[in-house]
Every structure is written in structure tokens, then in C-alpha cells.
TrEMBL record:
The gene is PFK. One of its GO terms (cellular component) is cytosol. Its EC number is 2.7.1.11. Its cofactor is Mg(2+). The active site is at D222. This is ATP-dependent 6-phosphofructokinase. The keyword Transferase applies. It holds the Pfam family PFK. It is an enzyme of class 2 (transferase). InterPro entries: ATP_PFK (IPR022953), PFKA (IPR050929), Phosphofructokinase_dom (IPR000023), PKF_sf (IPR035966), PyroP-dep_PFK_TP0108 (IPR012004). Allosterically activated by AMP. Catalyzes the phosphorylation of D-fructose 6-phosphate to fructose 1,6-bisphosphate by ATP, the first committing step of glycolysis. It comes from Salvia splendens (Scarlet sage).
Amino acid sequence: MGSQSNFQMKEVPGEFGYVLQDVPHFSDYISDLQTYPNPLRSNPAYSVVKQYFVDMDDSVPEKIVVHKDTPRGVHFRRAGPRQQVYFESDDVLACIVTCGGLCPGLNTVIREIVHSLDYMYGVSKVLGIDGGYRGFYSKNTINLTPKLCNDIHKRGGTIIGSSRGGHDTTKIVDSIQDRGINQACVYIIGGDGTLRGANVIYEEIRKRGLKVAVAGIPKTIDNDIPVIDRSFGFDTAVEEAQRAINAAHVEADSAENGIGMVKLMGRYSGFIAMHATLASRDVDCCLIPESPFYLEGKGGLFEYIEKKLKENGHMVIVVAEGAGQELLPTKNEEDASGNKLLQDVGLWIAQRIKDHFAKQTKMPITLKYIDPTYMIRAIPSNASDNVYCTLLAQSAVHGAMAGYTGFTSGLVNGRHTYIPFNRIIEKQNKVVITDRMWARLLSSTNQPSFLGPKCPSLMNAGQLGTYDKVTGLLGCLSLKP
Ligand SMILES: Nc1ncnc2c1ncn2[C@@H]1O[C@H](COP(=O)(O)OP(=O)(O)OP(=O)(O)O)[C@@H](O)[C@H]1O
Ligand SMILES: O=P(O)(O)OC[C@H]1O[C@](O)(CO)[C@@H](O)[C@@H]1O
Ligand SMILES: [Mg+2]
């Protein structure tokens, strides 16, 4: 499945190095479009709010830490309602699909799209596509009404179902066309794979010249989507992870040389593990995919565990599911979407630790391994994620009604924006171990950096300035602002 984009990004330059990375609009490929006054103009709740409508020229900078001489840089369109809309309420058919793994907040986003369409724009025809992309052409749809969706934010999962694999662009766009509608808003909620899929749907719709807006809402519990401040459900996941870490700590603290190990999600990005560790303060070692480590010898994990047990009598380790995969025997299996299936690194390390302490040392240990991964992502979103989901959904609805397409809504530096698909699918967001946040974690846990002769890859790649071979610590990180 390719992810190359056929349409160039719309870049609008301005003064002093200002660049607007704009989102596509119907007017880019359809002529003679009719516009209508936004129905919110006559809605008493909104018409009294000063500056409720977003100025067409408002934009949000991607980087807010700047030097006095640096150019103004990349900006994104500010999200929110526009004075004019490109649909008449009665003509619009909207549909919502959720794809990929579960994430706290999916139902909140669905609820808020349905409610916003109805209450703000008078759009009452909203279909839920059953079970991910393949539901477009192989299953029945669900009529989503404000009444049906009223309580769903209190439930985990997604009421319309989700799946991996099964994306067929032609069939999906045919199915949108076959429903006999020429005016539609398609809301696609999902992670990096889903948004690549959304981009090709948008491109096909554009090639066919259809007045169908494709709006994405980025979803990923791993927080691996670039550009945005964080993805919805992440806050909830970090909070829920505390329960598992607490349990691991209690178990470890109550045993002789107790080790509590918790595996958290994070296929390629260790954000949940990093933030859960920073939040907890009970964690002595956090292992993430971006930071290679080794077990044996000087500066290795076993040596550190022995030191910690001698000092404190117990310790807690958090490991992200994608950490240390290069140490495990390879298994070339993929899921239906083509994502590599990972080995259980937590189980593997737990066994290696047990073997090491049984054979190499006279230290009896008690190790408890906790894998709360699916329990964490199956819960409803917390209060802060609920607010976030609500605003993401409202922004997506405003954007599509205003004729924008091929975009996701997303929080950038605390402001809601519209981001073109091209930007959001171009790479994965990862923990940068030469950034301040990872350094903060290292100083909080006091764990080794593992950047010794056994992990030379980063040294060779020149990602670090210098490395203190004596202390094993990242002495001279080139910290980014
Ligand atoms: N490059 C691509 N082009 C078209 N469709 C894609 C592409 N990559 C993935 N998809 C489709 O997107 C859907 C979801 O992809 P995937 O299973 O990778 O989850 P995701 O959106 O990345 O979410 P998660 O964060 O849970 O992994 C699947 O139906 C898959 O077929
Ligand atoms: O078992 P599933 O549904 O494929 O999901 C597992 C994957 O989904 C994620 O939660 C991302 O959504 C990853 O962290 C994890 O590897
Ligand atoms: Mg993904």
C-alpha cells in the first residue's frame, strides 16, 4: 500500500519566511460552487459570541520557540467555524468510520461529530460505517442519531467497530458514490495507517471531481502521529498505566529483592512508557524502542538491576512493547494492515532476568510481570481527553462544512488547526532521545543510558554529541529547544 501523495501540498508564502501549509478546498477542483451563510450565524448560542467565526487569515505556527532572527516558519490554518459554508444542511450525508486499534475516546469523537452536525449545522443523516474501511463495501451501515450516541462516551471501544486491513480505495469511493449522494462529509478516525488510507480516498474523490469532504481525526494511543501536540486517549493511557505501575511497585516492595515489570503499548514510539514513568516516580528503569539497551556486562540492564536491588531491595521496570525487539529472535509476521507483529519483549526480559539471577548471582529475586496493555486501551477516555475529543470533532465538522478536505483536525501548540494529510502521514512521531524530555526521564530514574560500546549504532549515526564512557551518562546532549 503506497503512501505517496499525487497532489502537491498547498504552500502559501508570506513575509519574513512565513509559510502556510494549507489544506485542500473544494474550490481547488470544483468551479461555480455555491456558498451559504453558516447556520450558526442565526444560532443564539453562537451569534452573541464575539469573534466566534474564525478569520480566514488566522494561522498557527508549528514552532513557537524561536530565535529573534529566525524566519516565521510553517503555519497551519486555524480550525473553527467559517462565515460561509459549502453545503446546505438537508443535502448533506455524513459518514463516520473508525479503523486500526482501539483507543480511549473513540466513542466521544463519534458522539461529538453526530451532535455537532445535528445541533450546529442541522445535518441529521449520519451513517456509521460498520467495522473499519472494509465496512464501506461489505457491511451494513448504522444510522447515528444524537439520541443513539448520547451516552456512548462513557464506554470504551467504538460503537461502530474497527478493523485492520481491507482497504480498497476504488471500492470505498464507489460505495460513497453508489449511495446516490453527491454531497458528503466522510469523517475518518484512525492512526497513521488509517490516515494514509484517508489520503488515497481523498485523492480518488478529487480525481472524480466529487463534492465529498474527507476529514480525519488522528487517533493513536501510541502518540506516534507527527505535528500534533498529542493524540486523544494518550492522557487516559498514561493515567491508567499508573494503576499497573502501582501494583508492580507494591508487589516488588513487599518481596525480597522484588522486581515489578510492566509492559505498556508503544510499537515504534515509547511515549506512553516515558510519560507513565515520569508521572509515577516509582519506576527505576524505562525501556523504549528509540533507546537501544543491552542486558549483560558493564553498563547493562542486569548490572543496574543488581545495583538497585542492593540499594533499595526492590525495583520497577517499565518496558514499551517495541523496545529491544532487535535483541529477540526475529519473526517475520505481519497483521492484516502490514504492521510487523512484535514479540513479547516483557516476557522475554522477565525470563532472562530470572535466568541471570538464578545462574550468575547468589541473589534470590521475586519477579512479577504485569501486561495491562489491552486493559489500558479498552477504557473510556478521562475528563481531559473527553474535552480534547470534543474539540477535535467540532473542528473537523466546521472544516468539512466550510469546504475543506484532505485534512485532519489537530492540536498544535495548544491551538486547534487543520493539517493537510501530506504532513500528517509523512513520518512517525518518536521519542527523540537527544531531546530534553528523555534527559529529564534519565535524571528522574537515574537509569543508565545504555549508550556504551555494545550499543554503538547511535554513536555512529552521530545522533549524540559526546558520551561519557566512564559514567555511561549522556553528558553532552545537544538539547533541542
Ligand atoms: N498505505 C495505506 N494505504 C491505504 N490504506 C492503508 C494504508 N496503511 C494502512 N491502511 C489501512 O488503514 C487501516 C488501519 O491501519 P492500521 O491497522 O495500520 O492502523 P492505524 O490506523 O495505524 O492505527 P493504530 O495506531 O492502531 O495502528 C487498515 O484498514 C489498513 O488497511
Ligand atoms: O493487537 P492489535 O489490535 O493489533 O493492536 C496492537 C497494537 O495497537 C497499538 O495499540 C496501536 O494502536 C499498538 O501499540 C499495538 O502494537
Ligand atoms: Mg499505526
